[in-house]
């Protein structure tokens, strides 16, 4: 029996994904240590969501292997999935359920006791300030509310690993502060968190490890201080990834 504390939370080995002729993930190697708060950063379209989708067994890679605490996400799918809570961009939700019904549905699918589902659902809805909206249908939720109910479904079964795509995007500052506290508490309690973000300050504030992905490859990965190597994460990101800042004179037509 494997222990969730000895193997890395995630190990990706030689992962490849193409869409049509487009190589989107190019032999990614990544190790997320158990117990870490891990930030994944990279430009738009770098392959973060695609990599995370393969890491949690939602998207089959063309080549390579994804393991969660040493369990292959395809060969040992049900045991691996018990350990993970997932919030990924673009995942469909049952739109015609209310927030509370969605949590009930998720908990029962996970095989949880109905009373425990109700107890945890009530607590999550309250702490994420969704209690007044719990009777509204998910299709009526705002973008930020969808993030929060998605996070609640990811947390409900008390996983060992949370994999979250931009969990703070579109969330109001008070809810963002609550989510940060929940995630920090989760890591202090022995859990592992991997999240993608475009906000370098948030990654620097929360994470102890970070990986930079560009054009489907990991260009830097490790403890935050090592990756930053004396610079701010933003400076390091720009130097690793490149990019073009408009020069004086370009887009001159925008100024009257
Ligand atoms: N199902 C799909 N079919 C075709 N192309 C796809 C599909 N999913 C993603 N892509 C393409 O793969 C590339 C990587 O997308 P991905 O969503 O993984 O990037 P990302 O790093 O998460 O970007 P962002 O930061 O903008 O969310 C993009 O060019 C995207 O258009």
UniProtKB/TrEMBL annotation:
One of its GO terms (biological process) is response to antibiotic. InterPro entries: AAA+_ATPase (IPR003593), ABC_transporter-like_ATP-bd (IPR003439), ABC_transporter_ATP-binding (IPR050763), P-loop_NTPase (IPR027417). Pfam families: ABC_tran. This is ABC-2 type transport system ATP-binding protein. It is a peripheral membrane protein. It is found in: Cell membrane. One of its GO terms (cellular component) is plasma membrane.
């Amino acid at each position: 029996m494997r222990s969730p504390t000895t193997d890395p939370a995630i190990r990706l080995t030689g992962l490849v994904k193409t869409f049509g002729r487009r190589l989107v993930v190019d032999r990614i190697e990544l190790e997320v240590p158990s117990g870490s708060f891990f930030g994944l950063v990279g430009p738009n379209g770098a392959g973060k969501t695609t990599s995370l989708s393969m890491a949690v067994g939602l998207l089959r890679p063309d080549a390579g292997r994804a393991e969660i605490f040493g369990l292959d996400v395809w060969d040992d799918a049900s045991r691996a999935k018990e350990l993970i809570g997932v919030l990924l961009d673009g995942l469909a939700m049952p739109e015609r359920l209310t927030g509370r019904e969605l949590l009930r549905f998720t908990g029962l699918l996970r095989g949880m006791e109905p009373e425990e589902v109700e107890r945890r659902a009530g607590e999550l809805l309250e702490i994420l300030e969704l209690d007044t909206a719990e009777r509204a249908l998910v299709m009526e939720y705002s973008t930020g509310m969808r993030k929060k109910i998605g996070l609640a479904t990811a947390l409900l079964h008390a996983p060992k690993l949370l994999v979250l795509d931009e969990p703070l995007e579109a969330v109001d500052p008070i809810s963002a502060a609550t989510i940060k506290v929940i995630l920090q508490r989760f890591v202090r309690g022995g859990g592992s968190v991997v999240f993608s973000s475009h906000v370098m300050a948030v990654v620097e504030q929360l994470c102890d490890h970070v990986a930079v992905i560009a054009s489907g490859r990991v260009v830097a990965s490790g403890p935050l201080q090592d990756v930053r190597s004396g610079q701010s994460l933003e400076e390091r990101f720009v130097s690793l990834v490149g990019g073009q800042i408009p020069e004086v004179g370009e887009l001159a037509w925008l100024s009257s």
